[in-house]
Design brief:
single chain, 161 residues, SH3 type barrels, two-stranded antiparallel sheet, 2 helices
Amino acid sequence: MALTYTPKVGEVLECDFGDFVQPPLKPVYNGLMTPEIRKRRMVVVLNGRLPNGCTMVVPISSSGNPNAVQRGMHVFLDPALFTITSFYDKRNRWALAECITHVSKDRLSQIKDRGAPIPTFLPRDKVIAIQKAVIKAIAASVLLAPDPATAPAPMAGDDKL
């Protein structure tokens, strides 16, 4: 059932992205195609107040990609952050920042177990990590403040500029 409220930043919902067109059409212009995100899956909300009833979401997957993790585009989400349901089991998951998309609220619903909604929110530090990963995914890392742990030490005389 579609959402009837405005989702909050960091809220984990379920999104029905649909499936690939069967049989595949050539050329494909209407419908999903490989490697686009498909099926029913968890998403994290980054903006629930877009115009026209849309919500900005990042899909969550249980398929890790070490290269994408290393490049800062997949954010690890510990199994303890999620409630086990009849559909979702306990496993490692990742937020796929490069797959950020906007969807109609009609595609979104609360995660449920046996019909009962399970409100799920990611901790603030995870939401910030996902937001930073999105910035990296759109090649805008220059907008991020340097990490103090990796920033170069100030040079002598820098304070006189």
